[in-house]
Amino acid sequence: MEATVEQDIAWQIKINRVRRGMDQKTLAKAVGTRQSAISRLEDPEYGRASIPTLVKVAHAFGCALQVRLIPYSELARATQDTREDALYAASFEQERHWLEGGR
What we know:
Layout: H1 2-19, H2 24-31, H3 35-41, H4 51-61, H5 72-78, H6 84-87, H7 92-101
Helix pairs in contact: 2-3
């Protein structure tokens, strides 16, 4: 299960970066780090991402970061779907336009 969490966040970072049209250098600049650090974050075997770093990544993507203590059964359900669409987190701006369009 621990490996699942590490892989999931690495995949999420890469998918969200690519779908936003960012390269690693651009994301690194937005986060305030180097390209090599982004490369490590996107490595499913790295597993050493800190919460402060993940907060910066979420901010760069314009989305939220959720950290919770949950039962393993909930983690298993939440990480079953590894499709790109399931791992993509819409930005606040994207959701705001969706919400305004629904009025």
